[in-house]
Amino acid sequence: MKLRVNKLAVGVGAVTGFISSYVYTKFNGEKIAYASWTTNYEPNPAAKWDYNWDHMEPKYMVNPKKLKSASGDNEINESLEKNTSKVLRHVILIRHGQYNTLGLTDNERVLTETGRKQAELTGIRLKELGIPFTEMVKSTMSRAQETGSLISKNLPNIPVTNCDFIREGIPIPPEPAIGNWRSEMKQFYQDGARIEAAFRKYFHRADPSQEKDSYTLLVCHANVIRYFVCRALQFPAEAWLRMSLNHGSITWITITPSGRVYLKVLGESGHFPPSLVTSYP
User: Fold this and answer.
1) What value, to the nearest 5°, has the Cα angle with vertex 223 and ends 218 and 228?
2) SS3 12
3) CA nearest 3: which of 24, 36, 26?
4) Sign of the C-alpha dihedral, residues 159, 162, 163, 169?
5) Rounded-to-integer distance, Cα 153 and Cα 256, Å
6) Alpha carbon 242 to its chain's center
7) Torsion angle in degrees (nearest 10) through CA of 178, 243, 146, 123
């Protein structure tokens, strides 16, 4: 019978004097140390980065078998270069402002006075950043539409489009579970497919033909943003509900040409005075 027992021990480096932790794994009586400062460390296979997550990794977009000429190697290199992104793609996600939760329909769930102030201040903050925004995409729900319109007052020259895919919803059963959501599988099934489609639409490295960094503003909702963050960082998507986002907050994700993804900002709301910081619902 094989038994694996993990034990955490703390050791002090003899040369550096730094304190480091070692995870000792016993397997069939053999004791192996795993730590980031040891040469035998290997990352958890589940934690390894998938560089082809957006299906735009150049080496997977070239078929050497189709290049049968004498200059095949050159053709491969040229094709790889042609399919390689060269600039950054930034996706800046804005949560809508505080809204009227007593409304029975979406048309009645408009921003409160606090929510309008939040949206205006977020627009001012985005303008102050001096970023050459490429486009703004707004959820078609009333609170996101109103938030985006107030932001546009400070960013009047940015093209604006609307998208049903980024409407609020419940993307996937959260872990740990909460409330009675376990029984609402129909809602997960419907919302999840839509929100995942939105992720695939907006999260990918820049097109190889793109010559300048792009900055896309998505004005949407907390559940959608939290799910996007988990998916973009290749974290378990079920963890989306472990994060909290304030109304009118800014979340910034950067996708590099290599396919690496960086979370630059999560739920930034420091541009609000304390009296305007709200998060629920």
Assistant:
1) 55
2) strand
3) 26
4) positive
5) 30
6) 14
7) 170
- Which has the closest alpha carbon to 165: 192, 204, 136, 186? 192
Among residues 72, 111, 127, 43, which one has the least CA distance to residue 248? 111
Q: Model confidence over 56-81: pLDDT tens digits?
A: 999 887 766 665 554 556 777 888 88
**260 CB burial (10 A radius; 0-12, 13-18, 19+):** exposed
Listing DSSP states for 68-101 in one string gives -STTHHHHHHHHHHHT---S-EEEEEEEPPPB-T
Tokens found for residue 80: 């790889």
d(CA 219, CA 148): 6
User: Is the Cβ–Cβ distance between 238 and 175 less than 8 Å?
Assistant: yes
In whole angstroms, how far apart are CA 37 and each of 15, 17, 65, 103, 144? 13, 13, 42, 56, 47
Nearest residue to 233 via CA among 72, 111, 50, 104? 50
Burial (Cβ within 10 Å: 0-12, 13-18, ≥19) of residue 62: middle
**Angle, to 10 degrees, between the axis of helix 142-152 and the axis of helix 113-128?**
40
CA–CA dist 165, 158 (Å, integer): 20
pTM: 0.83
Radius of gyration of the chain (CA): 23
Strand pairing report for 250-255 and 261-268: antiparallel
> Tens of pLDDT along 96-153?
999 999 999 999 999 999 999 999 999 999 999 999 999 999 999 999 999 999 999 9
Q: What does the alpha-carbon distance between residue 20 and residue 11 come to, in Å, rounded to a whole number?
A: 6
